[in-house]
Amino acid sequence: MDGIEAEARVKNDRSPRYQCDIAVVGSGAAGLMAAIFAARNAPGTRVLAIDGAPKIGAKILIAGGGRCNVTHDRVEPDDFNGNRNAIAKVLRTFSVEQTIAFFLDLGVELKREETGKLFPVTDKARTVLDALLRAAREAGVEVMTATKVLQCTANARGFELATASIAIEATAVILATGGRSVPKTGSDGHGYIIARSLGHTVTDTFPGLVPLVIEGAHWIRELSGTSAEVEAEVRSSAGRVLRRERGSLLLTHFGLSGPVALDISRHWIALRRSDPGVTLAINFLPGVSVDKTLLDAAAKNPRATIGSALRGSVPQRILDRVAPPTAISHMKREQRREIVRTLTNLIVPVSGDRGFDYAEVTAGGVPLSEIDVSTMASRRRPNLFLCGEILDVDGRIGGYNFQWAWTTGRLAGIHAAKALSRAHDHKDSDAEAGR
Fold first, then answer.
1. pTM (predicted TM-score)
2. Which CATH superfamily is domain 3-206+356-434 in?
3. pLDDT, the chain, mean
């Protein structure tokens, strides 16, 4: 036990006590969903949503550039990293169509963009958060902010949650504390400590959907603000392709960002742990036979340059940086091929990532093997449920992680309510038997 937990325990020996039926620890996307469905399925009971932040929903508000990418029009198990069979079982319980209908019922209409991402028609994340908070309030959920749960202890009555100022007793607990991404919002990884104290294990955690840093003064860093449609590959030290992603790449003053960089980042990070020699290769002309394109251009126009032949296919700033204004017909074959290699097989010297402060999600967490994925109930502790980012599941960019949060939060809330009903029935039976 560290100092802060020990201090909390001493304080709470004298602290006021608060009793509830279901305590939801963490009130982000998954936690709010869990609280709403717990209260809806256990009317008349006391459901308490607890959050360490002064205001709820910071991650919802910053998601999607402040617009909140609620989900994607098509969500499949392959869009996630983790146990695919277990993920599939969870996703089947709450489809994208049901998610759209749920939010519409809350007054939030969603629109589909060309990428398949679904946003509120208002283009404001606040619309989503306000609707969730309103739904929680209407369901009877009590909310406690600026209250960090430092410790959770199981006992014969259920659980006792220790905070710096109050002790909370609950029959059932839902852990929805998030992971370690964007810790300033409250996701500082403390939920993993709580999960371990209740008998769970936690796999190694590292940043997912995070920008990548390029070492030194590479020319890519000079083209900050340039974006391109590319194919990116993580390759083993032996040259074997381990992961391939295609999408938009944004060059920045520190290295690489944009959807394709974020999607491939967790794979580069994870694979580098077992093979320090992994590399990241970028193809700025995926699907194009570049040599043929250049030779055809030179045949049609002896004065054609690589820049003129590829204009419109590659951002001009990149062409200006790598392709000289020499006519293709006047270039030596090896010189031309070297430029083609730069454009189609650029090995980028990635030195690291921007860390949890800039990561959109956490990779790693509590293994799904320790969870009954039909209910999100812990297999290690009765009346304990886990949902959202605390679990060892992370999705691609584009609303997939929100869909995971809505789905697992809903499941946890529904089944925590059912567990509460069983616990009350058990108490009533014991009382009856004692008469």
1. 0.92
2. FAD/NAD(P)-binding domain (3.50.50.60)
3. 93
